[in-house]
Amino acid sequence: MEYYAWVLAKFVAGFVIIATHMYLSGRTQLSQMTAIDLIGNFILGGIIGGVIYSDTIPFRQYLTVLLLGVLLIYLLNAATKHIQVLRGFAIGSPIPIIKDGKFLVENLVSNKHKIDILRVASQLHAQGGLAFQQVYYAQIEPGGELTIICDEKDMPSVVVMYNAEARIAQLESIGHDAEWLFAELSELGVERDEVFLAEFWRGELCVTLKDGSELCRNQPA
Q1: Which keywords does this chain's UniProt record carry (predicted)?
Q2: How far apart are CA 69 and CA 49, in angstroms?
Q3: Are 27 and 72 within one domain?
């Protein structure tokens, strides 16, 4: 009977620790999880599954290993929020597949292990698109969803700066670089460290400061 009591205690402790971790990290749904979360959950599940029926591993050691696993996942996720290279690796970046009404074949070829064009066609039809020919711009989102734009005027915004850090790849996608961004911020009288979010949409750069205020600058036609 004592054996089953310890099994139950290990099960409850593991469930509480992982559920608390998911709640505090905001990963309460599968769609919210990153690759780090998914792999980490397999590892945590392995820890619980490998220990829960074993009476040779002390309960305290089991809790310590489980908490170390949760801490590692937390630290890796925190790092991806501040290091763009890690974010691109763990979460991924949008993959443009159509631009100016033309397929970006080089992107399709270089990402052929990620993109199934027949599945993309099904997603297009599910969103009400009749044919690729009517699409002006399309991209595969990091989560695998398809975003399509049929009208040039409805192009989605591009976040070019987040938490005072310029996003180089996104700047390049709109034909600009970090020097241009910093010059625009200077024109607005804004210091880099003051920026929470900078968004480029319809030829306009809008900057949200860390105090919640917003400034916008129209670009010359």
Answers
A1: Cell membrane, Membrane, Transmembrane, Transmembrane helix
A2: 14
A3: yes
